[in-house]
Inverse folding.
């Protein structure tokens, strides 16, 4: 993990969503949150959250329908207390266009894979691959102060929203809220020791 960052063995870190099936042998199509796919070093243990009931999932086959991303749910939040987290073993993961194809233990037919559509795939925080010096996972930015390069404080990172290409920091200061994309042109410095993020506002970002 990043410098000074401890891990919580009970916390689950969402990595992306299962958005469809692939073929008839139980493969599922997985859409990762930005670069989170790097954490899927199969074989490994994973958890499925927000599972649908088999009845509600009927008819969602062949990856023809894609689950909509719930942008209101923090990308890195632990599951809500009433969420069912189903442990599974990830056997393999490989890129396939804009998604990844996953093979999960005990999911060997399309009938077994279909109810998984719409589920969020998570991994235990303690099982995330270690990062190098100065590196971090995006979810670890929660609670960091955010300031502009000119020294103006914008607030603290409440949570992150995945967009598919990059995360977005939801920065709040009382009733004020700013959405800050985690891209090189905007995020100029991440100070892990001081828990501070320095941004360079682009035109219209803070309007």
């Amino acid at each position: 993990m990043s410098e000074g960052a401890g891990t919580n063995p009970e916390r689950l870190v969402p990595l992306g969503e299962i958005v469809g099936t692939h073929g008839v042998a139980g493969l599922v199509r997985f859409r990762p949150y930005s670069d989170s796919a790097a954490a899927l070093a199969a074989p490994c243990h994973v958890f499925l959250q927000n599972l649908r009931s088999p009845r509600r999932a009927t008819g969602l086959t062949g990856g023809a329908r894609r689950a909509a991303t719930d942008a209101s749910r923090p990308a890195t939040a632990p599951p809500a207390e009433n969420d069912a987290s189903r442990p599974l073993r990830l056997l393999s993961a490989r890129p396939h266009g804009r998604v990844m194809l996953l093979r999960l233990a005990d999911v060997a037919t399309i009938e077994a894979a279909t109810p998984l559509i719409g589920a969020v795939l998570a991994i235990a925080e303690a099982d995330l691959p270690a990062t190098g010096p100065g590196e971090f996972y995006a979810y670890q930015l929660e609670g960091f102060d955010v300031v502009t390069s000119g020294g103006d404080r914008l607030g603290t990172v409440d949570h992150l929203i995945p967009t598919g290409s990059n995360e977005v920091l939801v920065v709040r200061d009382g009733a004020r809220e700013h959405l800050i994309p985690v891209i090189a042109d905007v995020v100029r410095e991440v100070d892990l020791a001081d828990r501070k993020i320095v941004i360079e506002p682009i035109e219209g970002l803070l309007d």
